[in-house]
Amino acid sequence: MARKETAADAANPGRLKQIALTYKMTRRADKMIGLVLSAVGIVTFGVFLAIGFLIGHPIYLGILGVLLAFLATAIVFGRRAERAAFGQMEGQPGAAAAVLDNIGRGWTTTPAVAMNRSQDVVHRAVGKAGIVLVAEGNPNRLKSLLAAEKKKMNRIFADVPVHDVIVGNGEGEVPLKKLRTTLLKFPRVLTGPQVTTTNDRLRAMGDLMSNMPLPKGPMPKGMRMPRGGPKMR
Fold this sequence. Notes:
Blueprint: H1 2-29, H2 33-55, H3 58-89, H4 95-101, E1 108-115, E2 121-127, E3 130-136, H5 139-156, E4 162-167, H6 179-185, H7 192-210
Parallel strand pairs: 3-4
Antiparallel strand pairs: 1-2, 2-3
Helix pairs in contact: 1-3, 2-3
């Protein structure tokens, strides 16, 4: 019992420190966060306290008002902190990968499965909705990159749906703040074992590509690859 209390006491300072850090980061992008949270808490408590006086139970409603005021403040703080975080990440390289890493249980994400010289990149997420290719960068350059990766996935996984999403604010694109919601709205067509099998095949394919023997140094000029395999002696 003493060990559990000690662990809880040790976790509280870290949790409070994290909340304070989140508040500071949010305040950089949202200068009104302090006033908004104070207003939400005061108004919520005031409404319940007033109702308490009207019905003759100010103490009970006052206590309930404190609890609900704290809950309402926490909800508003969470939403504004999330909005501020997306605002700071938007337009930054790798922002979509950061969102995919926090999409939740049941999803396996692999960042930067395809990339070009201009650093336009395609990430991959696998879940019960199938395979989702998430691209970020210049939409015009991403089309060919995304099409090539989608063609490869369709060729390898004929029985697994492959979706593609381009992150951005243009027509037909998905804003960064709606990326997680968009993926979760895809219909779930795979079972848990099918998702595991798909991940295993992708992992094996990645290991095979990474373990292929590559010649060291530049290839000599005029050298041609043999047409056939090695001949048996």
